Structures are given as structure tokens and as C-alpha cells.
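Quick question, first post here. What does this chain look like in 3D?
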Amino acid sequence: MLKNWISIFIFQVKNNKLFTALNVLGLSIGIAGLVFAILYWNDEQSYDQWNPNKDNVFLVANQMDPTTYWASSSAPIGSTIKNIRPEVESYCYVKGNYDNEIIRYNGKKIQSEKVVVAQKNFFDYFPYQFIEGNAKTGLPDGNSICLSEDLAMQIFGNESAFGKKIVLQNQTLVVRGVYKLDKKSIFNPSCVVNFMDLRVKNSIQNWGNFQFILLLKLKNPTDATLVEKSLSKIYYDNMTVPRAKSQGMNPEEFIKKFGEVKPHLEALSSIRLHTKTGGLIENNGNYQLLLIFVGLSILILILSIVNYVNSATANAVKRAKEIGVRKVIGASKANIIQQFIFETALILLFSILISLVIVELSIPYYNAFLEKNLVLQSGQFYLQLVVIFIGTVITAGIFPAIYVSNFEVLKVLRGNFIRSKNGVWLRNGMLIFQFAVAAFFIIGSYIVYQQIDFMNSKDLGFNGNQVLNISYRNIYGEKIDGKIQFAKYNNIKNQLLHIKGVKQVAGGGFVMGSGAKSVISYHYKDINIDGNNIPVDFGLLEMMKIKIVKGRYFNPQYSQDTISSMLINETALKLLNEKDPIGKKINWDGKEAIIVGVVKDFNLGNPGEAIPPMTFFHFKSVAWFNSLLNNIYVTADPKTMQQTIADIENLWSKKVDSEYPFLYDFVDKEYKRSYSGYVRQKNLFSLLNVIVIIIALIGLFALASFSIERRMKEIAIRKTLGAETTILLKDLCKQYVLFSIIGFLIASFPAYYLLNKWLENFAYRVSISISPFLIGFTALLLLTLAVVLSRAYQATKVDVLRYLKYE
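> Answer (accepted):
Ran it through. C-alpha cells below.
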């Protein structure tokens, strides 16, 4: 029986080469799209799933206002909650960013870009496998360090690293452990040092300084709500009540006017994709993009299956006599169903093989697109592939098999089955579905394009063209204060100004597109504002062409500008509700600051984000601002730009920082990368749009071909009676035009609703107009006519005698 089925399958393939190829191609593209989505899904979902503590470890995320959550916490909160809540097993503070440091050993210098500063129990929370030493004794004190296996190999080669001494930040450290960095996590450190215990100790009385990431390990994850309530009470007692007292009001009045800190616990297993904060050391995953990609990939596979079902049911008419004869000689309904499901399984096997080839060839580009390193390996992936195969065989194979098995023997053998209307309405319905999906993608792609184009063309409020941002490694140490840091920067600035082609030099404590590095609340009358702090040097705002709308820029001629002067932006001015803010005194972090100017709003974060209230200070006005001086901005003559950059690099490598590579970027290009995630969404939607249109056109071509072929005798008779070609073409195309219109109308509301939801991600967005729908409808109609007219025109050129000689 199986041999007979294979023989019949081969015979049918030979007689329907084109349509078999189209079916295989459509299914291959659909499956390949879903495979790509699965690889992305698996990778994003794998973060920290290996960790046995994933459900017991929580990040303390502090809600500062209705829309802002901080990942950082104050130093006293960890020990306080541990002492009063028995549900808390332990706590661990970790620095919120990787350090990029040079490690020295026996004259060898190795650069490590992922140095994590943490407390000694870091490996209790992230139990990477140790190959030398062990997790419990890896970080006993501030003189200890643990290395990843790769970093240990770079430093020591094949020698044992355990117990050896290395130098990091001019401090001698003993290697207490080596671990395997072979799993995905929100912390993937190349090495871990225990400098955090001392830093927490030095800040243990400072409740308002939110600077460290706090992780809590609970004995039972169901106690998270109780711990949240206790954290809120601790902040209330130690922050809200004292601040309310200093303002001369009761706590309830203070909360009503200024708000309060509301801690939330986020489980380790969900942080990567679901954190409400700006993220931890590793970039957050994009859960929305993940859902969009998976959802659209499933939709494309459904479209491919619809194509196959449409083609299979239409082609089944040609096999009516075969089915009739088989029924007469004793084949049961079940036998016929099994045979057609078997044929679907064979076609699907070929499709899966081709899809894997497509994925393997395309995966380097896919990895570059997502900035990942995905591979076609893992038991989980192959199991998912089997599920796809079984699900698709059932979905694509059952209906055509049942449809064929229900053919009536008498109608088939009498030869009039070809005129049967069975299945026509179903095929037409599925064709309308294809048109609807294609219309959705065309409309959606255009709206996404409009939004990204709007972001590209929006007035950002600054001009970073031809402005260099040089990454500057500031100097730190117990004996290094703000004055020394600023003096070192000033020396570098003066040397840069002597380079030919350099026009302006100014330092800044920020990076365009990355937002502010610190936020501090300040008070004016009964108004409280969480201001994004932007420390700058004289001339930086002018260099960036950031405009002043009231007052003046910072000026070295005014001594107060390095002591108490501040600028605010237009957003902060609106919150102050003050018509004339110049000269007004602000209570900023316990010190008096005087507003001397108002800056026109500009985008410090990506253009999809709302512009926050900003406060601008000169570096010298607040001592600790100098520690944020990690960027030096330079404007140079465009005509000699390359030579100027080469001269700056030469100065940098010889006199500024000989150990680290000279890193720079142009501000405008750097800023564009801040919203590259949205650009990737646009590119993804455009790519899927092309795939959907190809699949839809394949299905339309196949169905139109079958439909026209069934009407060939009618066409021949009408031609004999003198029908004109234009009349025939119009008659053959009108039903497909009608179907495309119905499909477009069906797609219009989902497209409007879902794309409107997507646009809610943007503070500054386009309005959905009628133009995307007009363009979508026009494109869909033109594509439909192009395919159907080409097939219909061929049909009108047939040899009439071929179809009428037996009549």
C-alpha cells in the first residue's frame, strides 16, 4: 500500500510540477519565518532560566512617579529589610553597569570590558559553575577577584589561575575562583570583584542616594507582597517623614504634593523581558518586538497553509476519476484520507528541509539584524520543529483529504464532476483571507515607515552634525576628588584646542540618546520635580546649537555659574508654573540654586520618549558631578576632519590614555543608534511584508490558474461566437477584484487598531491618516490585476479547436 501511495504521489508531482513547486516554496517560506521567530523566542526566554534561584531572587524596582521606575536603590535599605523581615534570606548589592578595565599580570595587559562590582555573595545569586575554587569562598573580601574561564585563559594561558595575583585599578587582587560563562543571564561578567561592601558601608546613612542595584533572595517567592509592603514602610519612615518635617508639613500632605517611593519586586526569571525599569547591565529584551515577530510569523505560516489547502482542493478536481475508481475497487474513506495526509506529509518534509536550508544560509544576516548569535542547535528546537511538522500536517492535510474522500462515485464516473461547485466557496473564502493578510501588511508597513521617517526628520532641538564625542576614562581613587578630576580634564581640553582643525572643546556628563546619568528631586514653593541632571562645561550647549528661550547660557565671566547657577528646560518650566523663572531660587538636593536660563526642549533620550524635565549645572558647581565627566565633545573643521581625528588620536594615545583604545563617534550617528530598535522593527515589518505578498501572489496565481483552466471550454465557445479579448479579460478578473476589495475592507480595522496600539510606544508620533489605506488598496489591486490578467490573457490566446473538437 505504501509503495502504491508513493507511486501515485510521484505521478502527481510529475503532472503538476509547477503547482507542487509553488506549494513547497510557499510552505518553505512560511516555516522558515516561524523557525526564525522560534530561535529568537528561545534565546530571549533562556535568560536566567538555568538559574535555580530564578523564582526566589527579586530585583527591587522603585517607582518614583506614575511612569518612572528605577533599578537602583539606596544603601541602607538592604540591611534594614533583612533585619525586620524573616522572609528575606539575604540581599546583594551590585553596580548597575559594567566597568571596562585593564588587568595586569607579569607585564601582560588584558582589557576586560565586563567587570562587575558586587558584594561577596554574588555567586549565591548567580551560581555559575566553578572550575577552580568555589562560589562560597570566591569573594571573601575586597582583595579578591573571580575570573571567567575565557578571561583566565587570556591572562594565564593553560596555567592554573587560582591563588595568583593580578592588578586591577592599581589594586593587587588574588584570584579566588574561575567560572564557566556559558549561560545567558542579566549578568554575564568577564570577572567579578568585591568592591561593593566598602561602597555600601560608606553610603549606609544616605537614604536618598539611589545608586546600587539591590537583589533580594526570599525563602518563599509567595512572600513578595509582604516584603514590598515592608519596603514601602521603611522608605516612608526614613525618607518621607523626615522630608515632610523639613518642609513643615505632615507626611500625607508631602505625599500628595511630592509623591513617595513605591518599591516593587521583579522576579529574576522575568526581568529580561518584563522589567519596568530602564534595565540592568545587559540590555533589556524587547518583549513587544518578540510578540510581534512570533505573531506575524504564525500568521505567515497560516497563510502558507491556506495557500496549500486552496491549491490542494482545487487540484483535487483533476483527481476525481482516480478517487472514483479506487472507491469502486474497494478503497474505504479512511484509506483515501490516509493517502492524502501521507502526500501532505511528504510535501511538508521537503518544505521543512528547504526551510532549514533557507535559515542556515540567512542566519548570519539574521544575527546581524538582531545583534545576536543564534544557531540551529538544541533539543528544544528540534522538538519544536517536530511539533510544527505534526501541527502543519494536521492543519494542511485533514481538510483536503476529507474533501477528496467525499467525492460521489456516480458523479465522478459519469464525467460531470468537473462542473461541481463543491469547495468553491471555501476556496474563495480562503482567498479573501489571503487578500486581507496582504492588505494588513501593506498598510502596516507604510504606517511603520511613516513613524520611523517622522523620528528621523523630527527637530531634535540640537545639532550633532560634525561634533565628535570622545569617550574619556575619568580618574578615580580614594585620594581623587572633583577638583583633581576637573583639573585633569581642563589640561586635556587645552591640549586638544592646540590641535590644528579643532574649533571647540567642552566636556559633558551625558551621551545623546542615552538619557541622563542621575536624577535628583528639587523643590520650588510647593512643587516637586524629578530633574534629569545634565552637568556641562562652558560652551557645550552652544556647540550643540541648543537654544536658550529665556535668560542666558553659562558664562565664565559670572563666578556664580560655577557655584549656584542652574538652567532648566521648557518641560521643567511648565512644571514650575512660573512665568518669569529667571532669578528664582530652587531647593536642589539641600542646596540653593538660582535659575539663570531656560533651554529649549531637546531630545536627550531617543525621539520616541517624552522629553523629561532637565536641570543643567556646570561641573564645578557640584563636586560629585565631575565623576560623570566621561565624554569630551569636539567640533573640528570638516575640510581637515580626518587629519584632525588622527592628530587627536595621536595625542590621546601618547599623553591622555595609552592603555585603552581611542574611541570616538559623531554625535548625530550615535544618536540614531538610540532608536535602532524601532528601525529594526520597521525593517522586520518590511521584510515580512515582502514575504506575505510573495506567498499571497503564489496562492493567487495557483488558484487563478485552476479557476481559469476549469473555464477553458467556456472561453473557447465564447471566442468562437466572437467575444472580444477585453470582454473576456474583464469577465475573468472581476471576481478577483471583488475578493481583493472584500479582503481589504476586512483588514482595515485590525490594521488601524493594532498599528495605533504600536504607535502608543512613542511620545511623539504620527497620526494614522487615510493615505496608508489608499496606498494599501491601490497596491493590493495592482498586484491582483497583474497576476490575474497575465493568466487570463494567456487563456484568451488558446487554440479553440483543442477544447471544441470533441463537442
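The mean pLDDT is 83.
The longest helix spans residues 333-370.
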